[in-house]
Amino acid sequence: MLTVEQIQQHFIEVLNGAIRRPALYGPGEVGLHYAMSNVTYVMETDDEWSDALAERGAWSSIGVSGAVRQLMPETEQRAAASVYADYAREHGWLTLDRVLTSDEYGDLHSELATWCAVDRTRADVLARFGEPSVRIGGIGDQSLGYGRRVSRSCGSTPGTTRVLLAGRCGGQFVESLLFTPEGARRRPAEDDDEE
Questions:
Q1: Residue 115 to residues 47, 56, 90, 141: CA-CA distances in angstroms?
Q2: Which of 28-32, 74-78, 167-171 has the highest mean pLDDT?
Q3: pLDDT tens digits for 5-64?
Q4: Inter-residue long-range contacts of 1-8, CB under 8 Å, 24+ positions, other chains counted
């Protein structure tokens, strides 16, 4: 018979897989939602995770994807996965491939606004900040997350042409997004409700 710890570890591993390769776990954020719900259940957290994401402005009536869809072009599933990754990291459930030192994290945090003021490629991000803490997506298009264990993670979200579209660093979802010029050009047009 499996121990409670083995069951918890199993669901944490599933969540980590869903964050890294969300498309393999279903369309949109279905797999992410299911994996997060299972982890919060087996970990017996009192925290209602969707309410916590709603308080940050990262949740809508259709989940994280709804909040992301209003802001991010072409990267909805990966951007949604980065929000789940941030929440999982805060609770110690995200396995980081590389943990940033305090100096690395400080550099990234202080340079994020400047970096997002200019168009960048994924190669630029990797050259400046090194290997990410987590890669979200397939071999081609990926979102890169950088984080440390103690404080909020910072992340970048390259688009389909492997250019940096936006960076964000914890806090309220909308306010934390810093768009590059290319990211701003690709943002979805706001719907004008004409009645």
A1: 34, 23, 25, 19
A2: 28-32
A3: 999 999 999 999 999 999 999 888 899 999 999 999 999 876 688 888 888 888 888 888
A4: 4/42, 7/42, 8/39, 8/42, 8/43
**Which parts of 91-172 fold into alpha helices (H)?**
102-115, 122-129
Using DSSP's 3-state secondary structure scheme, residue 156 falls into strand
Virtual torsion, Cα 66, 69, 75, 76, nearest 10 deg:
10
pTM (global) more than 0.90? no
Helix (H, G, I), strand (E, B) or coil at 171: coil
Least confident of 26-30, 122-126, 179-183: 179-183
What is the phi/psi pair of residue 145, to 5°?
A: -115, 135
* CA nearest to 72, candidates 152, 147, 136, 149: 136
Whether 57 contacts 67, CB under 8 Å: yes
Q: β-strands 120-121, 177-179: how paired?
A: unpaired
